[in-house]
Batch of 2 targets.
Target 1
Amino acid sequence: MRRRQFVTALGATGLLGATGSAGAQSDVSASRLGGGVENVIVLIGDGMGFDPIEVTSVVHGDLSLQSMTGVGYTRTNSRSGEVTDSAAAGTALATGHEAYNGQISVRGDAEDEDPTPLLTQLELSQARGKATGLVSTTRITHATPAAYASHVPDRDMEGTIAEQYAESDVDVLMGGGRREFDDELLERMRGAGYEVLFDSADLEAASGDRLLGLFDDSHVTYTLDRDGSIPSLTEMTGAAVDRLEDEDDGFFLMVEGGRIDHAEHGNDIQTTVAETEAFDAVVDWALEYAENRDDTLVVVTSDHETGGLATGSGYGSPIEAEAIRNAEASNAAIAAAIEDGTPIREAVEGRVEVELTDEDVKRIADAKDADGPFALSNALGAVVSDHLGVAWASNVHTGPAQTVMAAGPHVDPFNGWIHHTDLSVTLAALLLFGRLPRVSDSQREFWERTIARTGPSGRLDAWLALEYVGPATDDVTEALDVDGNGVVDYRDILLILEGDAPSPSAQAGRRREAIGSVHDL
């Protein structure tokens, strides 16, 4: 079996006490497991690889996220292969399980229409009495936020995801996606206690404890193109924390800078930089919030890289930082202007400080007449990026590992390679137990033999079981799969922690049963 690897920089210290077994849990060893972190803020820059961070720092100066303790590198591959999508990556980060591209917090074959739902970090937090929130610049029903509070076999089932939100008990939901909530569903949300918000004025005047903010019909308009009617990602985050921090047991909040990825799909460098800077403003806000507290963990990462951006297209200083900084529109907005009849030179040069060649104009004109919804904006991306001194590898996702940064309790410098699933179980462990003791190989082997024979029960076993999150494939993981659904997930960890795990003899011969509700804890 492959055990999950705890990120030691986020917690492991000292040695486990007298024993690490279910059958011999000493007071000393159990006492090494402290209380969990009270507040967790997970910040995900969707598609934000290393180079978008670097180029943004060239344009705007060092970023707040670059001041954070380096935790290491997190691999992004999914069950589909080396290049993940946001659904599988979000599932790995939220549940500790690898998934096939397109799946949202479920475990099953790629074409399985009724896969097993997996309890997420957000749902784990709810079960421990924490307030919870999801904030994004994508549709709130899009892949990354959806992975934390819904369970569907296909990320395109956004209507179903919206319906599941109505039953999710998430306290704050804010982003775009108004089109996914019809009048009937909005009334259901209001009936569940949500104050429904549609613009900045609504957010400023909001007085409710539960918020549903739908600030655009689809994705939230790019930073370069929006007006004051749409709140910034930082304003949404601040409003979310204002509500969530009132809960005595703390809160879990995931914030996504989701449109970094979309800009990168179009190789739109000025928008990539603007969206990354806007995301970094949230990082700055979160670090300031956590600075004088000893109860709040801030983790920053990306789910994957998009576009394969290169920091510079030549030696020396090829990046036109001032032109990128002064850009007044995204390539999507420029493309819309061209489609509406604005001459190409006027549309481009009036919004970005570049001088197009005749060849550039012809390339853009040819793309305007080409098939495909993104042909024009992609051509603009290629032309404008060339003038601004950067290069791209593709218009789709790429597969390299991503950086992880963290600040707060139990964070120490670390340089290592993990996987999204390892990062997930480490955060789950910190939510439940705080700083983690280490356990020796001999203690581990003794614990495994005991678990296979007597089954798990209690705090120490729940902590050790986190490293086995994944499919149940042998005697140990089958014993840890206490609800018998074929996987070890965070629901099993809760059942073990709360002493509700049946013994192996009680499990014997039990047929696999589907989970009725991930909220039925």
Target 2
Amino acid sequence: MRIFIKSLVTASLFAGLAAAQAQEALPAIAQEYPPGDWPLYARDHSGQRYVPLDQISRETVGKLKRAWEFRLRPQGGGSIMAGTVPVVIDGRMYLPTGDAVVALEADTGREIWRHQVEGATVRRSVTYWPGDATHEARLFYSTGNALVAINASDGQLAKGFGTDGVAPFDGANYSYSPSIFRDTLVIGALTPELDKGPDGDTRAFDAVTGAFKWAFNTIPHPGEFGHETWLDDGWKDRPGANMWVWYTTADIETNTLYMTLGSPGQNYWGGDRPGDNLFANSLVAVDIDTGAYKWHFQAIHHELWDWDLPAPPVLVDVVKDGTPIRALALTGKNGLMYILDRNTGEPVHGVREQLVARGDVPGEWYSPTQPIPVKPEPLNRMWWNPEDVVTAEDTNEEHAAACRALLDSYGGQFFNAGPFTPFFLHKEGDPPRASINMPHNGGSVWGGSAADPTTGYVYVNISEGGSIGWIEERDPNGNYGNGTRGSTQPYDRGSLIGPGAYSGFNARFKDAEGRDVMLPCIRPPWGRMVAVDANTGEIAWATPLGTTPQLAEGKQDTGAMNWIGGATVTAGGLVFIGATSDGVFRAFDSQTGALVWSEQLDYAAQTIPMSYLGKDGRQYLAVVATGRTAEPVLDASGAPANAERVIVWALPDN
């Protein structure tokens, strides 16, 4: 027994020393937290999702075994936990489950305490605050209109915060846990996609007391910088321009918070908001303590495609032509990556204002140009012609025939003018003149990017596809999408399938077992894992990500629509990612893109993987798996198994 204890202590000691040595070799940006912890949604404030541990490496990853699992919601409804990432501090994991927050032993999965949540759904994450000289560590979550603080030690309400642990907030709802920067809690806003409604201002609160600290007007008011980009009073009562995602990033050394803001209401028509519309579709840098404006970069002028900026930027230091630059990489639904100086917002590798096509919708205001990076090159295909239609050799004759029929129904051609292709007015009785805009909700969505601070590589998973249709006079009884009912806008998106913007260039067919299958009609690959060298702006490698199991053997390596998740990179030279609808969890070589390990899961891991050090000195790899795959998971009676869970791996304990 003494030998076992001595071995365990020795292993733990050497693991700690190795982690500390690895930490010393990292740039300062990657040394915010102990190397064995995962205390924030993206691990640290930089958003790099970089794990400075290397027990699990290119050489050892093939030996991974499942260490433990935790079932999320035996009562059902586990799919709502997509996008959830636990936090781990000093060997304890904190996890939201929708109707509760639980604390688990991070190396065994044993439940320590459970905090029940009433009248709200807690998902995506919980926020950890380490406490101070007079307050113990806390966890925070949001009910939608109030922040709640609980003690990390026992899950009880933190009485010194707000009123008995609850601090209501004004303005638009925000249902996700706040981001935290020192003692400042930051929340965004969830606004309706209408022409009138609540503002999308970002707000900040004190982590000790819950008191309001500041708000930033994401749509500038009269006299504020950027107000002049709203012509004809289009700013008034305008919803949107909101930070809707559930975490954001910051440079703690310069006290700078980076907000990625969405589109202004309403989508697809902006004739009542002429102008570039700052700070919509922009990255805005503000002071963490005061909310004071520092700089901005607008990725889309006068947005008409619902290409809001979902993911926060990832911070990465680069060296260009021998000069060190504190930079960040911004990605979004338009399939472009902007590498910017994070102190000034200036492009590192250049951005040009490129002339783009304009549509013909009455009263619309079209920006003549849009910002296109000189480097990196677009991560997605942005141009289309009929030769891009999938063939039977790519998939099968049934799918190819369905795609040809879909194209024929639109007259055999779509309009495409490359990036930012507009949609044109279609009146009832007109021939079906449609545009195809690429990508269709692709690029990098909320999964965002990971970065390796030792190499300057940025890793992002992207999806391909095309959005098809037109702009039509709005049918007051038509369903134009979630959150749009009651809009008074005169025009909105439509297509041959009816009102709404969700018509992609995809076609449905029957597979060999008679099941309906819907697949993209552009030629594969439909999804890729891409590594960009931020130092040069060049793509270092790209490889298909995901498969299509519904296709015949030999044709399944298509890449997949994989926007529902993101990657994590490790000091062991690995990029871990779930995200794909095939339910496979993968590891790629971070230098070459070679697939080095994979495991089929019952549920797709539609989130970001994490890794940490257990109390036993072992490195663990964890992911929340809740997404549907081609094969439903059923129990013995044929009912849904409700087996969505946290899955944790480790190397053999030897």
